[in-house]
Amino acid sequence: MRTLLLRKKAKGFTLIELLIVVAIIGIL
User: What is the pTM of this model?
Assistant: First the structure.
């Protein structure tokens, strides 16, 4: 699931999305 998110966001990676991904990984 993590790889899918990274792949999906790889095209348009914004600071906000990066923070969201880090937050999700931190919770998990």
Answer: 0.44
